[in-house]
Design a protein that fits this description.
Layout: H1 2-31, E1 34-38, E2 47-51, E3 74-78, E4 87-95, E5 102-109, E6 113-117, E7 121-122, E8 127-135, E9 144-151, E10 154-161, E11 168-170, E12 174-177, E13 186-192, E14 197-203, E15 208-213, E16 218-224, E17 232-241, E18 250-255
Parallel strand pairs: 3-10, 12-18
Antiparallel strand pairs: 1-2, 4-8, 5-7, 5-9, 6-8, 9-10, 11-13, 13-16, 14-17, 15-16, 17-18
C-alpha cells in the first residue's frame, strides 16, 4: 500500500509540474510582440511596427490597421467589338495623372489579352501607349479583361470591357414545369444575328430538345422533360454556326422549385 501511495504522490507531482510548464510557456508566448502592418494610402509605403498583447489594461488585444487593404481604382476602356469579331490589335493610351513620373516595372493581363509592348516610364501628367492584341478564347463567357501595371507608384488597373454587340437573344430563358405536371413540351424563341444559324440543341437528365427555324433569324427551341416526378434543373445548350466568340445560348429548364 505504501508503494502504491508513493506512486500516486509522484504522479500528482508530475501533473503539477506539467501544468506549471505549460502556464509558463503560454505567458512567454503572450508576452512576445506581434508584428502588425498598416495598409498604405494609395501611392504610399508599407510601414511595419510592433504591438504587445500583454498590456496591463488591455490583455490579448491586437492593433488593427486603421485603413484596410484596398483595390486600386481602375481606368476603363471599351473595345466595342462586333458580334463576330474574334481578334483585334489595339493601342491604349494610359494617362499618368500624378505629379511624378511612373516607372512601369511589369504588366499582366487576363485570358483574352496579349500585351505586345508597353512604356518603361510615363512622365508626370503625361501618357504612354500600351499595345495589345485581343483574341477571343474558346469556351469563355467573360465580357471584360483586366490589365495590371506594376509601377513605381504601386499597382494600376485597366478594365477593358469587350462591349460586344449581341448576337443572340431569347424571348424567355427559363422553361418551368411543376412536380407531377404532364410531360408536355415547352418552347422559347431564339433570335440570332444575320448569318448565324442554330444548328442543334443538347439537353440533359433524360429530356429531349429540338430546334426549328421559323424565320431568317429566329429559331424555336423546344424541350420535353424526361420526368417531372422530382425537383430538377438542367440546361439546354444551343449550338451555333458559325460559332460566335464568347457566346453560348443556354435555356435553363426547371422542374418544381429546384435551385
Amino acid at each position: 500500500m505504501a508503494s502504491s501511495y508513493r506512486r500516486d504522490l509522484l504522479s500528482g507531482f508530475l501533473v503539477v509540474a506539467a501544468i506549471a510548464a505549460a502556464t509558463s510557456s503560454l505567458k512567454a508566448q503572450t508576452a512576445a510582440p506581434i508584428t502588425t502592418v498598416t495598409a498604405p494610402a494609395p501611392g504610399g509605403t508599407i510601414t511595419a511596427g510592433t504591438a504587445t498583447t500583454n498590456s496591463a489594461n488591455a490583455a490579448n488585444l491586437r492593433t488593427i490597421p486603421s485603413t484596410p487593404p484596398g483595390i486600386p481604382p481602375s481606368t476603363d476602356y471599351n473595345l466595342q467589338l462586333q458580334w463576330n469579331e474574334s481578334q483585334r490589335g489595339v493601342t491604349l493610351t494610359y494617362q499618368n495623372t500624378s505629379t511624378q513620373a511612373l516607372t512601369v516595372q511589369g504588366i499582366q493581363s487576363t485570358g483574352n489579352i496579349f500585351i505586345v509592348a508597353f512604356p518603361s516610364s510615363i512622365p508626370a501628367g503625361g501618357s504612354g501607349p500600351i499595345d495589345l492584341v485581343y483574341l477571343a478564347q474558346a469556351g469563355t463567357q467573360a465580357d471584360s479583361d483586366i490589365i495590371r501595371l506594376l509601377t513605381s507608384d504601386g499597382l494600376k488597373l485597366i478594365r477593358l470591357a469587350h462591349g460586344r454587340a449581341p448576337a443572340a437573344s431569347f424571348d424567355k430563358q427559363v422553361l418551368s414545369w411543376q412536380i407531377g405536371e404532364a410531360l408536355d413540351p415547352k418552347s422559347a424563341t431564339l433570335t440570332l444575328a444575320n448569318g448565324v444559324l442554330a444548328t442543334g440543341v443538347t439537353s440533359f437528365d433524360g429530356s429531349t430538345a429540338t430546334v426549328t427555324q421559323e424565320g431568317a433569324n429566329t429559331f424555336l427551341i423546344t424541350v420535353t422533360p424526361g420526368s417531372t416526378a422530382i425537383s430538377d434543373k438542367f440546361p439546354a445548350i444551343i449550338t451555333l454556326s458559325p460559332a460566335v466568340p464568347n457566346t453560348t445560348p443556354v435555356i435553363t429548364c426547371v422542374i418544381g422549385s429546384a435551385n
